[in-house]
TrEMBL record:
Top-level taxon of origin: Bacteria
Gene source species: Deinococcus metalli
Keyword Ribonucleoprotein: no
PANTHER family attached to this UniProt entry: RNA-BINDING PROTEIN KHPA (PTHR34654:SF1), UPF0109 PROTEIN SCO5592 (PTHR34654)
Protein name: RNA-binding protein
Any matching Pfam family: KH_KhpA-B
Keywords: Cytoplasm, RNA-binding
Length: 82
Protein backbone atom coordinates (compact mmCIF):
# COMPACT_ATOMS: atom_id res chain seq x y z
CA UNK A 1 0.00 0.00 0.00
CA UNK A 2 1.38 3.37 -0.99
CA UNK A 3 1.09 6.33 1.35
CA UNK A 4 0.59 9.90 0.24
CA UNK A 5 3.08 12.36 1.65
CA UNK A 6 1.59 15.32 3.43
CA UNK A 7 3.59 18.41 4.22
CA UNK A 8 3.64 18.73 8.03
CA UNK A 9 3.69 22.54 7.84
CA UNK A 10 0.59 22.73 5.63
CA UNK A 11 -1.31 20.22 7.75
CA UNK A 12 -0.37 21.98 10.99
CA UNK A 13 -1.45 25.34 9.54
CA UNK A 14 -4.81 23.92 8.49
CA UNK A 15 -5.45 22.29 11.86
CA UNK A 16 -4.34 25.30 13.91
CA UNK A 17 -6.47 27.69 11.85
CA UNK A 18 -9.46 25.41 12.42
CA UNK A 19 -9.14 25.75 16.19
CA UNK A 20 -8.44 29.44 16.86
CA UNK A 21 -10.71 32.48 16.62
CA UNK A 22 -8.28 34.49 14.45
CA UNK A 23 -7.12 32.12 11.68
CA UNK A 24 -5.21 34.77 9.66
CA UNK A 25 -2.90 35.34 12.65
CA UNK A 26 -1.62 31.75 12.68
CA UNK A 27 2.00 31.38 11.55
CA UNK A 28 3.73 28.04 11.07
CA UNK A 29 7.42 27.51 10.40
CA UNK A 30 9.85 24.65 10.48
CA UNK A 31 13.14 24.33 12.33
CA UNK A 32 14.66 20.95 11.59
CA UNK A 33 12.30 18.21 12.74
CA UNK A 34 10.14 20.66 14.71
CA UNK A 35 7.12 22.49 13.35
CA UNK A 36 6.62 25.75 15.27
CA UNK A 37 3.12 27.25 15.58
CA UNK A 38 2.54 30.88 16.56
CA UNK A 39 -0.95 32.23 17.20
CA UNK A 40 -2.40 35.61 18.16
CA UNK A 41 -1.83 36.76 21.73
CA UNK A 42 -4.41 35.21 24.04
CA UNK A 43 -5.18 32.33 21.67
CA UNK A 44 -2.57 29.93 23.04
CA UNK A 45 -5.13 28.35 25.35
CA UNK A 46 -7.42 27.47 22.46
CA UNK A 47 -4.57 25.70 20.69
CA UNK A 48 -3.45 23.85 23.80
CA UNK A 49 -6.95 22.84 24.88
CA UNK A 50 -7.98 21.33 28.18
CA UNK A 51 -5.09 19.40 29.68
CA UNK A 52 -3.23 19.73 26.37
CA UNK A 53 -5.61 17.54 24.40
CA UNK A 54 -5.91 19.74 21.31
CA UNK A 55 -2.16 20.22 20.76
CA UNK A 56 -1.59 16.52 21.42
CA UNK A 57 -4.22 15.61 18.82
CA UNK A 58 -2.55 17.93 16.30
CA UNK A 59 0.82 16.29 17.03
CA UNK A 60 -0.68 12.84 16.53
CA UNK A 61 -2.30 13.75 13.21
CA UNK A 62 0.83 15.43 11.84
CA UNK A 63 3.04 12.48 12.81
CA UNK A 64 0.59 10.00 11.29
CA UNK A 65 0.38 11.92 8.00
CA UNK A 66 4.11 12.60 7.60
CA UNK A 67 6.83 10.34 6.27
CA UNK A 68 7.30 7.40 8.67
CA UNK A 69 11.09 7.72 8.43
CA UNK A 70 10.90 11.31 9.62
CA UNK A 71 10.23 12.16 13.26
CA UNK A 72 8.15 15.36 13.31
CA UNK A 73 7.31 17.31 16.45
CA UNK A 74 4.82 20.17 16.76
CA UNK A 75 5.55 22.89 19.32
CA UNK A 76 3.74 26.07 20.29
CA UNK A 77 5.85 29.21 20.17
CA UNK A 78 4.40 31.21 23.04
CA UNK A 79 5.92 33.66 25.47
CA UNK A 80 6.83 31.93 28.70
CA UNK A 81 5.36 33.27 31.93
CA UNK A 82 7.93 33.91 34.63
Amino acid sequence: MRRMKTDPVDLTLFLAQSVVDQPPMVRVSRRGPTVIVRVAPGEEGRLIGRQGRVIQAIRTLVRAASDPRERVNVDLDAPRKQ
